[in-house]
């Protein structure tokens, strides 16, 4: 049996290829996708051949192709392994660490069953949304604390939405692109500021009566972290969510971190426990379940965040557009329903 999969076959090149579907293992499920979401930063790095794609990457190693991606998706269970008891054929599910692939065979621990009132489109965003959710948890945000999100790509926009749902007040969204700031206001930001404004840090301190308590840094840029630190209150906490992919940072740690007691918190998607959740540190599966609950109980609106939907048959042009930076949407998905 074969299925269609989006594969990065060379530098800046994506193709929809025919791939074999593996047999279902004892603890696995076979899922037919409905939608899969694009994680712009990670997938741009993958398709462009960037080797610094995770903290375990070997510096200077030559990029190797083919590469696969598409780790946040939704679909319907077609088959379950003999040891699987919590899922059955026909269940609607969200998947984490899947592929842009019509049929995925995946460990049951990477799948969460959906409530009837949760759509496939929403569920396909859950895994990506767990990244800023984990970052917020790690800061130990208290209800009523001010929170700043530096950078409004897909993770930053989710961070704004989840910060509001978590009780942050005010929520300050920051990005140089006006359209992104406007969207952040629609999904929970109380203020949306341009970091290029000369008095940017002073504005934040005026809004927050002296400095922001919590910041989620999502740009992955040294200048982004530097500016976030300029906005912090004494003993503030900064979650480093954005993937830097560049180690050449110049920060005045003595004055901006050490002297004011600011915490810098590693918040990479994989920096979390594997088996048991505790306050501030949830497993990714538990965060996936949390996203399902937030959506089912209408605490968040993910549908309104989706900008564009693509056909997998158009993947070559879609990823070329991503690489070339041609007005690529912040939140976008592939629709697999028409793929045969």
Could you explain how this protein is built, in words?
The protein is an alpha/beta fold and 340 residues long. The chain has helices at residues 40-47, 120-123, 126-138, 154-165, 178-186, 200-207, 222-230, 253-258, 284-296, 315-324, and strands at 2-10, 13-20, 28-37, 67-68, 72-80, 92-96, 103-107, 111-113, 147-150, 171-174, 191-193, 212-217, 232-240, 263-266, 308-310, 332-335. Helix 3 crosses helix 4 (154-165) and helix 3 crosses helix 9 (284-296). It starts with a strand and ends in a 5-residue tail after the last strand. The relative contact order is 0.16.
What's the SSE blueprint?
Blueprint: E1 2-10, E2 13-20, E3 28-37, H1 40-47, E4 67-68, E5 72-80, E6 92-96, E7 103-107, E8 111-113, H2 120-123, H3 126-138, E9 147-150, H4 154-165, E10 171-174, H5 178-186, E11 191-193, H6 200-207, E12 212-217, H7 222-230, E13 232-240, H8 253-258, E14 263-266, H9 284-296, E15 308-310, H10 315-324, E16 332-335
Parallel strand pairs: 9-10, 9-12, 10-11, 12-13, 13-14, 15-16
Antiparallel strand pairs: 1-2, 1-4, 3-5, 3-7, 3-16, 5-6, 6-8
Helix pairs in contact: 3-4, 3-9
